[in-house]
Amino acid sequence: MDLGLKEKIVLVTGGANGIGRGIVSDFLEEGSRVVIADWNEEDGIQTQVAFREKGYEVMFLQMNVRHLDEIKQAVETVIEHYGRIDVLVNDIGTHMYKSSLDFTVEEFDQLIQTDLRGHFLMTQQVVPHMKAQGGGAIVNIASVHALATRPHFSVYAAAKGGIVSMTRGLALEFAPAGIRVNTVLPGMSISKDFQKRLEVLSDKEREAALEKAAYNTPLGVVGEPKFIGYPVVFLASEKAAFMTGAIVPVDGGETIHLDW
């Protein structure tokens, strides 16, 4: 099925590894031209080289989403190079799990600035260009923790819940300009750090680790990055033209499962 994404210019933050890299891969398979914006230069360059060797058009830009000047420079670079941004995927985020009573002000600010404010600032810089070109699509990546969480995840859950509420507000605000804004909520999936832990295990240990990680997922598996990417690509495509403000869990059923 042609999703109408061939030759589209797609900007993916946090696309150097993990879920972000899976999202990048899925867009490239649809024929899109993808720009990766990520703070990790080593991973970003490696990802760019790996996809270019496969014949895909991909560009890497080093950018820290906590710094507005770097966001502006990244967006300006994409516009200078391609002249437009058709799709923005806000994936950059960080993790910090600890007792709420032990959080420092600095840690709280760092998490919120990265996971929530970063999505907002990227959107703020990209939307004027989308308005000028007649429309576009934005897909935010949050987490199932926006809907259901666990102890010691309160600040992380707050950031992800903020993305959900922000998505709805932005969808209303930008609908008249033909800009759709939706959010995907990934469940337990294979991150860069998780993948590194798996690589040093034996086949039997790896199988046990994956089974343990998927214990709360009705489908019984951990999500691969590409599986998270497929719904993201769909939401960015012409096939989702009547969807905006949608909140889509991609979690193997995790958020509908009661763990007694």
TrEMBL record:
The organism is: Pullulanibacillus pueri
Q: Which UniProt keywords apply?
A: Oxidoreductase
Q: Which CDD domains match?
A: SDR_c
Q: Which superkingdom, per the lineage? A: Bacteria
According to the UniProt entry, its GO molecular function terms are: oxidoreductase activity
Gene3D superfamilies according to UniProt: NAD(P)-binding Rossmann-like Domain
Offer one example of a GO biological process linked to this entry: bile acid metabolic process
List the protein's name: Beta-ketoacyl-ACP reductase
Q: Which Pfam families match?
A: adh_short_C2
